[in-house]
Amino acid sequence: MIRFIDVYKEYDNGTKALKGVNMRIDDGEFVFLVGPSGSGKSTIMKLITGEISPTEGKLMVNGYSLNNISPKQIPLMRRTLGIVFQDFRLIEKKTVHENLSFAMRAIGASNRDMRKRIGYVLRLVGLEEKAHQYPGQLSGGEQQRVAIARALVNNPNMIIADEPTGNLDPSRSLEIMMLLERINELGTTILVVTHEMNLVNKFAKRVVTIQEGRIISDETGGYYHGEKI
Amino acid sequence: MARRFDFGYYCKEGVHSIFMHGFMSFAAVCMIVACLLIMGSFSLVAVNLDNMLGDLEAENEFLAYVDESYSEEEARALQSKIEVIPNVAEVLFVTRAEALDDFRLGREDNELLSSLPDDVLRDRYRIHVDDIELLKETSDAVKTVTGVADVNAAYDIAQGFVMVRNIATGIALVLIGILVFVSLFIIANTIKLAFFYRREEIAIMKMCGATNSFIRWPFIVQGMILGLFGALLAFLMQWGVYSLVVKAVIQSNGLSLVTIIPFSVLIPKLLLIFCCAGLLIGVVGSVLAIRKFLQV
Fold first, then answer.
1. pTM, entire model
2. Is the sign of the CA dihedral B160, B165, B170, B171 positive or negative?
3. Which of A45, A48, A74, A99 has the most B C-beta neighbours within 10 Å, making it the best mutation to test the interface with B?
Protein backbone atom coordinates (compact mmCIF):
# COMPACT_ATOMS: atom_id res chain seq x y z
CA MET A 1 0.00 0.00 0.00
CA ILE A 2 1.24 3.47 -0.90
CA ARG A 3 0.00 6.71 0.70
CA PHE A 4 1.01 10.21 -0.29
CA ILE A 5 -0.45 12.77 2.14
CA ASP A 6 0.08 16.37 1.04
CA VAL A 7 3.55 15.60 -0.29
CA TYR A 8 5.78 18.41 -1.54
CA LYS A 9 9.16 17.98 -3.10
CA GLU A 10 11.52 20.82 -3.82
CA TYR A 11 14.99 20.01 -5.18
CA ASP A 12 18.15 21.77 -4.07
CA ASN A 13 18.14 23.87 -7.27
CA GLY A 14 14.73 25.29 -6.29
CA THR A 15 12.62 23.20 -8.69
CA LYS A 16 9.24 22.46 -7.12
CA ALA A 17 8.53 18.99 -8.52
CA LEU A 18 5.53 18.07 -6.36
CA LYS A 19 3.03 20.52 -4.92
CA GLY A 20 0.78 18.80 -2.43
CA VAL A 21 0.26 15.32 -3.85
CA ASN A 22 -2.40 13.15 -2.22
CA MET A 23 -2.65 9.60 -3.51
CA ARG A 24 -3.48 6.18 -2.14
CA ILE A 25 -2.76 2.88 -3.86
CA ASP A 26 -4.18 -0.13 -2.08
CA ASP A 27 -2.86 -3.68 -2.19
CA GLY A 28 -3.92 -5.55 -5.31
CA GLU A 29 -4.63 -2.47 -7.43
CA PHE A 30 -3.42 -1.84 -10.98
CA VAL A 31 -2.72 1.87 -11.45
CA PHE A 32 -1.44 3.90 -14.36
CA LEU A 33 0.38 7.08 -13.37
CA VAL A 34 0.32 9.31 -16.39
CA GLY A 35 1.35 12.80 -17.28
CA PRO A 36 3.51 14.80 -19.66
CA SER A 37 7.31 15.09 -19.34
CA GLY A 38 8.36 17.13 -16.31
CA SER A 39 5.01 16.66 -14.59
CA GLY A 40 6.53 14.93 -11.52
CA LYS A 41 6.16 11.23 -12.43
CA SER A 42 9.87 10.50 -11.96
CA THR A 43 9.89 12.34 -8.65
CA ILE A 44 7.03 10.14 -7.43
CA MET A 45 9.01 7.06 -8.52
CA LYS A 46 12.13 8.24 -6.72
CA LEU A 47 10.14 9.02 -3.59
CA ILE A 48 8.55 5.57 -3.59
CA THR A 49 11.92 3.81 -4.02
CA GLY A 50 13.53 5.89 -1.27
CA GLU A 51 16.10 7.55 -3.53
CA ILE A 52 14.90 10.94 -2.31
CA SER A 53 12.74 12.02 0.60
CA PRO A 54 9.80 14.42 0.61
CA THR A 55 10.33 18.06 1.56
CA GLU A 56 6.92 18.16 3.24
CA GLY A 57 4.02 15.79 3.84
CA LYS A 58 3.73 12.14 4.74
CA LEU A 59 4.68 9.16 2.61
CA MET A 60 4.07 5.51 3.44
CA VAL A 61 5.22 2.60 1.28
CA ASN A 62 4.23 -0.95 2.20
CA GLY A 63 4.19 -0.17 5.91
CA TYR A 64 7.38 1.94 5.96
CA SER A 65 7.15 5.64 6.71
CA LEU A 66 9.62 7.23 4.30
CA ASN A 67 9.70 10.50 6.24
CA ASN A 68 11.83 9.05 9.00
CA ILE A 69 13.10 5.79 7.54
CA SER A 70 16.61 4.86 8.69
CA PRO A 71 19.26 4.07 6.06
CA LYS A 72 19.29 0.46 7.28
CA GLN A 73 15.57 0.09 6.66
CA ILE A 74 15.69 1.35 3.07
CA PRO A 75 16.93 -1.99 1.63
CA LEU A 76 14.19 -3.79 3.56
CA MET A 77 11.57 -1.40 2.16
CA ARG A 78 12.94 -1.90 -1.36
CA ARG A 79 12.50 -5.65 -1.02
CA THR A 80 8.75 -5.03 -0.93
CA LEU A 81 9.02 -3.44 -4.38
CA GLY A 82 9.95 -4.79 -7.80
CA ILE A 83 11.15 -2.16 -10.23
CA VAL A 84 11.02 -2.33 -14.03
CA PHE A 85 12.77 0.27 -16.17
CA GLN A 86 12.29 1.43 -19.73
CA ASP A 87 15.87 0.39 -20.65
CA PHE A 88 15.51 -3.05 -18.96
CA ARG A 89 18.83 -2.68 -17.03
CA LEU A 90 19.82 -6.30 -17.42
CA ILE A 91 23.39 -7.43 -16.88
CA GLU A 92 24.60 -8.25 -20.38
CA LYS A 93 27.30 -10.70 -19.34
CA LYS A 94 24.90 -12.80 -17.30
CA THR A 95 22.33 -15.23 -18.65
CA VAL A 96 18.61 -14.79 -18.00
CA HIS A 97 18.83 -17.27 -15.13
CA GLU A 98 21.91 -15.55 -13.72
CA ASN A 99 20.23 -12.15 -13.90
CA LEU A 100 17.41 -13.51 -11.78
CA SER A 101 19.65 -15.36 -9.34
CA PHE A 102 21.74 -12.19 -9.01
CA ALA A 103 18.65 -10.31 -7.83
CA MET A 104 17.77 -13.07 -5.38
CA ARG A 105 21.34 -13.36 -4.07
CA ALA A 106 21.31 -9.62 -3.38
CA ILE A 107 18.75 -10.21 -0.65
CA GLY A 108 20.48 -13.31 0.69
CA ALA A 109 18.27 -16.04 -0.82
CA SER A 110 19.53 -19.62 -0.58
CA ASN A 111 20.40 -21.69 -3.67
CA ARG A 112 17.40 -23.91 -2.97
CA ASP A 113 15.03 -20.94 -2.89
CA MET A 114 16.59 -19.61 -6.08
CA ARG A 115 16.09 -22.85 -7.98
CA LYS A 116 12.44 -23.05 -6.97
CA ARG A 117 11.51 -19.43 -7.48
CA ILE A 118 13.39 -18.73 -10.74
CA GLY A 119 11.80 -21.67 -12.52
CA TYR A 120 8.34 -20.53 -11.45
CA VAL A 121 8.89 -16.90 -12.47
CA LEU A 122 10.38 -17.81 -15.85
CA ARG A 123 7.34 -19.99 -16.56
CA LEU A 124 5.10 -17.10 -15.56
CA VAL A 125 6.72 -14.70 -18.02
CA GLY A 126 6.99 -17.39 -20.71
CA LEU A 127 10.79 -17.49 -20.90
CA GLU A 128 11.53 -20.92 -19.48
CA GLU A 129 13.21 -21.93 -22.74
CA LYS A 130 15.47 -18.88 -22.74
CA ALA A 131 16.91 -19.32 -19.24
CA HIS A 132 20.44 -19.86 -20.46
CA GLN A 133 20.50 -17.18 -23.13
CA TYR A 134 22.14 -13.80 -22.71
CA PRO A 135 20.10 -10.58 -22.90
CA GLY A 136 21.80 -9.69 -26.19
CA GLN A 137 20.31 -12.82 -27.75
CA LEU A 138 16.75 -11.78 -26.86
CA SER A 139 14.29 -9.39 -28.50
CA GLY A 140 13.32 -6.13 -26.77
CA GLY A 141 10.00 -7.60 -25.59
CA GLU A 142 11.76 -10.67 -24.20
CA GLN A 143 14.32 -8.52 -22.43
CA GLN A 144 11.54 -6.54 -20.80
CA ARG A 145 9.90 -9.80 -19.73
CA VAL A 146 13.21 -10.79 -18.12
CA ALA A 147 13.22 -7.42 -16.33
CA ILE A 148 9.68 -8.11 -15.11
CA ALA A 149 10.73 -11.59 -13.99
CA ARG A 150 13.62 -10.05 -12.09
CA ALA A 151 11.27 -7.56 -10.44
CA LEU A 152 8.98 -10.44 -9.51
CA VAL A 153 11.56 -12.97 -8.40
CA ASN A 154 11.88 -11.65 -4.84
CA ASN A 155 8.11 -11.89 -4.43
CA PRO A 156 7.43 -8.16 -3.85
CA ASN A 157 4.11 -6.67 -2.72
CA MET A 158 4.22 -4.21 -5.58
CA ILE A 159 5.78 -3.82 -9.03
CA ILE A 160 6.59 -0.33 -10.21
CA ALA A 161 7.18 -0.10 -13.93
CA ASP A 162 8.73 3.12 -15.23
CA GLU A 163 7.82 3.51 -18.92
CA PRO A 164 8.08 -0.27 -19.40
CA THR A 165 7.02 -0.12 -23.03
CA GLY A 166 9.00 2.96 -24.03
CA ASN A 167 11.51 0.95 -26.08
CA LEU A 168 9.03 -1.52 -27.58
CA ASP A 169 6.80 -1.64 -30.67
CA PRO A 170 3.00 -1.53 -30.10
CA SER A 171 2.39 -5.30 -30.25
CA ARG A 172 5.26 -6.05 -27.80
CA SER A 173 4.00 -3.20 -25.58
CA LEU A 174 0.58 -4.78 -25.43
CA GLU A 175 2.12 -8.13 -24.52
CA ILE A 176 4.04 -6.55 -21.66
CA MET A 177 0.91 -4.80 -20.36
CA MET A 178 -1.03 -8.05 -20.55
CA LEU A 179 1.74 -9.77 -18.63
CA LEU A 180 1.60 -7.09 -15.92
CA GLU A 181 -2.18 -7.46 -15.82
CA ARG A 182 -1.79 -11.21 -15.30
CA ILE A 183 0.74 -10.65 -12.50
CA ASN A 184 -1.77 -8.24 -10.94
CA GLU A 185 -4.46 -10.90 -11.11
CA LEU A 186 -2.14 -13.17 -9.11
CA GLY A 187 -2.20 -10.58 -6.30
CA THR A 188 0.73 -8.22 -6.90
CA THR A 189 -0.02 -4.49 -6.89
CA ILE A 190 1.10 -2.80 -10.13
CA LEU A 191 1.97 0.85 -10.69
CA VAL A 192 2.83 1.69 -14.28
CA VAL A 193 4.30 5.10 -15.03
CA THR A 194 3.76 5.96 -18.67
CA HIS A 195 2.73 8.62 -21.15
CA GLU A 196 1.50 6.21 -23.83
CA MET A 197 -2.08 7.29 -24.26
CA ASN A 198 -3.17 4.47 -26.60
CA LEU A 199 -1.86 1.74 -24.36
CA VAL A 200 -3.44 3.15 -21.20
CA ASN A 201 -6.78 3.48 -22.89
CA LYS A 202 -6.79 -0.18 -23.96
CA PHE A 203 -7.06 -1.20 -20.30
CA ALA A 204 -9.93 -0.16 -18.09
CA LYS A 205 -7.73 0.51 -15.05
CA ARG A 206 -7.35 3.26 -12.54
CA VAL A 207 -5.55 6.23 -14.12
CA VAL A 208 -3.91 8.91 -11.98
CA THR A 209 -2.94 11.96 -13.98
CA ILE A 210 -0.29 14.33 -12.76
CA GLN A 211 0.55 17.71 -14.20
CA GLU A 212 2.95 20.37 -12.94
CA GLY A 213 3.43 18.51 -9.67
CA ARG A 214 -0.29 18.18 -8.88
CA ILE A 215 -2.71 15.30 -9.35
CA ILE A 216 -5.38 16.62 -11.67
CA SER A 217 -7.48 13.47 -12.06
CA ASP A 218 -7.79 10.05 -10.50
CA GLU A 219 -10.35 7.82 -12.20
CA THR A 220 -10.95 4.10 -12.14
CA GLY A 221 -11.50 2.78 -15.65
CA GLY A 222 -10.23 6.20 -16.63
CA TYR A 223 -9.19 7.63 -19.90
CA TYR A 224 -5.94 9.39 -20.61
CA HIS A 225 -5.91 12.37 -22.98
CA GLY A 226 -2.15 12.51 -23.33
CA GLU A 227 -0.19 15.73 -23.81
CA LYS A 228 -3.37 17.62 -24.72
CA ILE A 229 -4.31 17.96 -21.02
CA MET B 1 15.77 -19.27 4.65
CA ALA B 2 17.91 -16.24 3.79
CA ARG B 3 21.68 -16.47 4.37
CA ARG B 4 23.22 -13.61 6.27
CA PHE B 5 26.84 -13.93 5.16
CA ASP B 6 27.55 -15.35 1.70
CA PHE B 7 31.31 -15.80 2.09
CA GLY B 8 31.68 -17.91 -1.05
CA TYR B 9 30.03 -15.24 -3.17
CA TYR B 10 32.13 -12.44 -1.67
CA CYS B 11 35.36 -14.37 -2.33
CA LYS B 12 34.33 -15.25 -5.88
CA GLU B 13 33.46 -11.65 -6.68
CA GLY B 14 36.60 -10.32 -4.96
CA VAL B 15 38.94 -12.67 -6.86
CA HIS B 16 37.12 -12.00 -10.13
CA SER B 17 37.55 -8.26 -9.63
CA ILE B 18 41.28 -8.64 -8.95
CA PHE B 19 41.83 -10.34 -12.32
CA MET B 20 39.44 -7.95 -14.05
CA HIS B 21 41.73 -5.04 -13.14
CA GLY B 22 45.02 -6.88 -13.33
CA PHE B 23 47.31 -3.92 -13.75
CA MET B 24 45.87 -1.94 -10.87
CA SER B 25 45.91 -5.05 -8.70
CA PHE B 26 49.56 -5.61 -9.62
CA ALA B 27 50.39 -1.98 -8.76
CA ALA B 28 48.57 -2.29 -5.43
CA VAL B 29 50.42 -5.50 -4.53
CA CYS B 30 53.76 -3.90 -5.51
CA MET B 31 53.10 -0.93 -3.27
CA ILE B 32 52.15 -3.15 -0.36
CA VAL B 33 55.29 -5.23 -0.91
CA ALA B 34 57.46 -2.08 -1.01
CA CYS B 35 55.78 -0.70 2.08
CA LEU B 36 56.09 -3.88 4.11
CA LEU B 37 59.61 -4.61 2.89
CA ILE B 38 60.86 -1.22 4.00
CA MET B 39 58.90 -1.44 7.21
CA GLY B 40 60.27 -4.94 7.81
CA SER B 41 63.87 -4.03 6.99
CA PHE B 42 64.01 -1.08 9.32
CA SER B 43 62.12 -2.94 12.00
CA LEU B 44 64.59 -5.83 11.78
CA VAL B 45 67.52 -3.41 12.07
CA ALA B 46 65.85 -1.89 15.12
CA VAL B 47 65.09 -5.34 16.60
CA ASN B 48 68.70 -6.48 16.13
CA LEU B 49 70.10 -3.29 17.61
CA ASP B 50 67.71 -3.66 20.49
CA ASN B 51 68.91 -7.21 20.95
CA MET B 52 72.53 -6.05 20.97
CA LEU B 53 71.63 -3.34 23.44
CA GLY B 54 69.95 -5.99 25.55
CA ASP B 55 73.16 -8.02 25.53
CA LEU B 56 75.09 -4.93 26.41
CA GLU B 57 72.67 -4.18 29.20
CA ALA B 58 72.91 -7.71 30.51
CA GLU B 59 76.68 -7.52 30.59
CA ASN B 60 76.87 -3.88 31.22
CA GLU B 61 78.50 -2.59 34.28
CA PHE B 62 80.54 0.38 35.07
CA LEU B 63 83.21 0.70 37.69
CA ALA B 64 83.22 3.13 40.56
CA TYR B 65 86.64 3.53 42.18
CA VAL B 66 86.79 4.21 45.91
CA ASP B 67 89.04 6.89 47.30
CA GLU B 68 92.49 5.43 48.03
CA SER B 69 92.47 6.86 51.54
CA TYR B 70 89.39 4.75 52.49
CA SER B 71 89.96 1.55 54.36
CA GLU B 72 88.18 -1.60 53.11
CA GLU B 73 85.50 -1.27 55.79
CA GLU B 74 84.88 2.37 54.89
CA ALA B 75 84.79 1.43 51.23
CA ARG B 76 82.25 -1.36 51.85
CA ALA B 77 80.08 1.11 53.74
CA LEU B 78 79.51 3.02 50.49
CA GLN B 79 77.46 0.13 49.01
CA SER B 80 74.20 1.15 50.64
CA LYS B 81 74.59 4.72 49.35
CA ILE B 82 75.18 3.49 45.78
CA GLU B 83 72.33 0.98 45.86
CA VAL B 84 69.72 3.68 46.47
CA ILE B 85 70.68 5.59 43.30
CA PRO B 86 67.97 5.23 40.60
CA ASN B 87 68.69 2.80 37.72
CA VAL B 88 71.26 0.88 39.79
CA ALA B 89 70.35 -2.79 39.47
CA GLU B 90 73.17 -4.54 41.27
CA VAL B 91 76.25 -3.46 43.19
CA LEU B 92 79.26 -5.74 43.70
CA PHE B 93 82.19 -4.77 45.88
CA VAL B 94 85.67 -5.75 44.59
CA THR B 95 88.65 -5.46 46.91
CA ARG B 96 92.02 -4.20 45.72
CA ALA B 97 93.43 -7.75 45.84
CA GLU B 98 90.51 -9.20 43.86
CA ALA B 99 90.83 -6.42 41.31
CA LEU B 100 94.52 -7.22 40.86
CA ASP B 101 93.77 -10.94 40.55
CA ASP B 102 91.22 -10.18 37.88
CA PHE B 103 93.73 -7.97 36.12
CA ARG B 104 96.37 -10.68 36.22
CA LEU B 105 93.98 -13.28 34.84
CA GLY B 106 95.23 -14.24 31.37
CA ARG B 107 98.42 -12.28 31.87
CA GLU B 108 100.18 -14.88 34.02
CA ASP B 109 103.32 -14.73 31.86
CA ASN B 110 103.83 -11.06 32.56
CA GLU B 111 106.51 -10.86 35.19
CA LEU B 112 106.00 -7.17 35.66
CA LEU B 113 102.48 -7.76 36.92
CA SER B 114 103.51 -10.50 39.34
CA SER B 115 105.87 -8.14 41.05
CA LEU B 116 103.20 -5.52 41.74
CA PRO B 117 102.15 -4.95 45.37
CA ASP B 118 98.61 -6.14 46.33
CA ASP B 119 97.33 -2.64 47.01
CA VAL B 120 98.38 -1.13 43.69
CA LEU B 121 94.76 -0.95 42.55
CA ARG B 122 91.86 0.72 44.29
CA ASP B 123 88.80 -0.87 45.93
CA ARG B 124 85.96 -0.62 43.50
CA TYR B 125 82.32 -1.37 42.83
CA ARG B 126 80.95 -3.14 39.79
CA ILE B 127 77.59 -1.50 39.20
CA HIS B 128 74.93 -2.96 36.85
CA VAL B 129 72.23 -0.68 35.47
CA ASP B 130 68.60 -1.34 34.49
CA ASP B 131 68.44 1.01 31.51
CA ILE B 132 71.55 1.48 29.43
CA GLU B 133 70.19 4.72 27.99
CA LEU B 134 70.56 6.24 31.47
CA LEU B 135 74.11 5.00 31.93
CA LYS B 136 75.66 8.46 31.92
CA GLU B 137 73.16 9.90 34.39
CA THR B 138 73.62 6.92 36.71
CA SER B 139 77.40 7.02 36.61
CA ASP B 140 77.35 10.78 37.22
CA ALA B 141 75.11 10.23 40.25
CA VAL B 142 77.44 7.54 41.60
CA LYS B 143 80.38 9.88 41.15
CA THR B 144 78.77 12.39 43.50
CA VAL B 145 78.78 9.87 46.38
CA THR B 146 81.40 10.94 48.92
CA GLY B 147 84.21 8.41 48.83
CA VAL B 148 83.85 7.58 45.15
CA ALA B 149 86.98 8.93 43.47
CA ASP B 150 86.10 8.20 39.87
CA VAL B 151 83.88 6.15 37.56
CA ASN B 152 84.66 4.30 34.37
CA ALA B 153 81.60 3.87 32.11
CA ALA B 154 81.67 2.98 28.42
CA TYR B 155 78.58 5.01 27.70
CA ASP B 156 79.86 6.16 24.30
CA ILE B 157 79.31 2.63 22.94
CA ALA B 158 75.91 2.38 24.57
CA GLN B 159 74.90 5.81 23.32
CA GLY B 160 76.06 4.85 19.83
CA PHE B 161 73.80 1.80 19.79
CA VAL B 162 70.89 3.80 21.18
CA MET B 163 71.37 6.53 18.60
CA VAL B 164 71.54 4.09 15.65
CA ARG B 165 68.45 2.28 16.94
CA ASN B 166 66.54 5.52 17.37
CA ILE B 167 67.53 6.75 13.91
CA ALA B 168 66.51 3.42 12.35
CA THR B 169 63.17 3.55 14.16
CA GLY B 170 62.62 7.19 13.16
CA ILE B 171 63.41 6.58 9.48
CA ALA B 172 61.25 3.46 9.53
CA LEU B 173 58.31 5.37 10.99
CA VAL B 174 58.54 8.19 8.44
CA LEU B 175 58.91 5.80 5.51
CA ILE B 176 56.13 3.58 6.78
CA GLY B 177 53.87 6.62 7.09
CA ILE B 178 54.55 7.71 3.51
CA LEU B 179 54.29 4.22 2.07
CA VAL B 180 51.13 3.35 3.99
CA PHE B 181 49.56 6.51 2.58
CA VAL B 182 50.64 5.64 -0.98
CA SER B 183 49.51 2.02 -0.54
CA LEU B 184 46.11 3.13 0.75
CA PHE B 185 45.77 5.52 -2.19
CA ILE B 186 46.57 2.81 -4.74
CA ILE B 187 44.38 0.19 -3.07
CA ALA B 188 41.54 2.72 -2.85
CA ASN B 189 41.90 3.52 -6.54
CA THR B 190 41.95 -0.15 -7.49
CA ILE B 191 38.75 -0.67 -5.54
CA LYS B 192 37.18 2.48 -6.99
CA LEU B 193 37.93 1.21 -10.48
CA ALA B 194 36.30 -2.13 -9.64
CA PHE B 195 33.34 -0.30 -8.14
CA PHE B 196 33.00 1.92 -11.20
CA TYR B 197 33.16 -1.13 -13.49
CA ARG B 198 30.35 -2.78 -11.53
CA ARG B 199 28.24 0.34 -10.98
CA GLU B 200 25.32 -1.01 -13.08
CA GLU B 201 25.26 -4.24 -11.11
CA ILE B 202 25.46 -2.33 -7.86
CA ALA B 203 22.57 -0.09 -8.89
CA ILE B 204 20.52 -3.22 -9.64
CA MET B 205 21.50 -4.80 -6.34
CA LYS B 206 20.43 -1.67 -4.46
CA MET B 207 17.18 -1.56 -6.38
CA CYS B 208 16.53 -5.18 -5.38
CA GLY B 209 17.09 -4.34 -1.71
CA ALA B 210 20.70 -5.40 -1.16
CA THR B 211 22.16 -4.00 2.03
CA ASN B 212 25.26 -1.82 1.97
CA SER B 213 27.25 -4.52 3.70
CA PHE B 214 26.30 -7.05 1.02
CA ILE B 215 27.57 -4.63 -1.63
CA ARG B 216 30.65 -3.66 0.38
CA TRP B 217 31.94 -7.14 1.28
CA PRO B 218 33.26 -8.25 -2.15
CA PHE B 219 35.35 -5.06 -2.30
CA ILE B 220 36.64 -5.57 1.21
CA VAL B 221 37.52 -9.17 0.34
CA GLN B 222 39.31 -7.86 -2.77
CA GLY B 223 41.34 -5.46 -0.61
CA MET B 224 42.05 -8.22 1.92
CA ILE B 225 43.30 -10.61 -0.75
CA LEU B 226 45.54 -7.93 -2.30
CA GLY B 227 46.86 -6.97 1.14
CA LEU B 228 47.48 -10.56 2.21
CA PHE B 229 49.12 -11.52 -1.07
CA GLY B 230 51.36 -8.44 -0.87
CA ALA B 231 52.23 -9.30 2.73
CA LEU B 232 53.20 -12.89 1.93
CA LEU B 233 55.28 -11.77 -1.03
CA ALA B 234 56.99 -9.12 1.10
CA PHE B 235 57.65 -11.69 3.82
CA LEU B 236 59.39 -14.06 1.39
CA MET B 237 61.45 -11.22 -0.04
CA GLN B 238 62.32 -10.06 3.46
CA TRP B 239 63.49 -13.57 4.28
CA GLY B 240 65.78 -13.55 1.24
CA VAL B 241 67.20 -10.09 1.98
CA TYR B 242 67.76 -10.94 5.65
CA SER B 243 69.53 -14.21 4.80
CA LEU B 244 71.86 -12.34 2.43
CA VAL B 245 72.65 -9.74 5.11
CA VAL B 246 73.31 -12.43 7.74
CA LYS B 247 75.63 -14.21 5.32
CA ALA B 248 77.50 -11.00 4.58
CA VAL B 249 77.88 -10.19 8.28
CA ILE B 250 79.17 -13.67 9.11
CA GLN B 251 81.74 -13.50 6.32
CA SER B 252 82.87 -10.01 7.28
CA ASN B 253 85.79 -9.76 9.73
CA GLY B 254 84.95 -6.19 10.64
CA LEU B 255 81.47 -7.13 11.79
CA SER B 256 82.44 -10.27 13.69
CA LEU B 257 81.30 -8.78 17.00
CA VAL B 258 77.82 -8.03 15.67
CA THR B 259 75.29 -10.64 16.73
CA ILE B 260 72.27 -11.11 14.46
CA ILE B 261 69.07 -12.86 15.48
CA PRO B 262 68.45 -15.89 13.22
CA PHE B 263 65.45 -15.37 10.89
CA SER B 264 63.90 -18.63 12.07
CA VAL B 265 63.43 -17.05 15.51
CA LEU B 266 61.65 -14.07 13.97
CA ILE B 267 59.37 -15.97 11.54
CA PRO B 268 56.17 -16.36 13.62
CA LYS B 269 56.08 -12.79 14.89
CA LEU B 270 57.18 -11.22 11.60
CA LEU B 271 54.72 -13.26 9.54
CA LEU B 272 51.90 -12.26 11.86
CA ILE B 273 52.87 -8.58 11.71
CA PHE B 274 53.20 -8.63 7.91
CA CYS B 275 49.83 -10.36 7.44
CA CYS B 276 48.06 -8.04 9.88
CA ALA B 277 49.61 -4.94 8.27
CA GLY B 278 48.72 -6.17 4.75
CA LEU B 279 45.16 -7.01 5.75
CA LEU B 280 44.76 -3.67 7.51
CA ILE B 281 46.01 -1.70 4.49
CA GLY B 282 43.69 -3.71 2.22
CA VAL B 283 40.61 -3.32 4.38
CA VAL B 284 41.11 0.37 5.20
CA GLY B 285 41.83 1.18 1.52
CA SER B 286 38.64 -0.62 0.42
CA VAL B 287 36.44 0.97 3.05
CA LEU B 288 37.77 4.43 2.22
CA ALA B 289 37.18 3.85 -1.50
CA ILE B 290 33.55 2.75 -1.33
CA ARG B 291 32.32 4.74 1.64
CA LYS B 292 30.92 7.67 -0.33
CA PHE B 293 29.44 5.51 -3.11
CA LEU B 294 27.11 3.70 -0.74
CA GLN B 295 25.30 6.71 0.61
CA VAL B 296 22.22 6.57 -1.69
1. 0.69
2. positive
3. A74
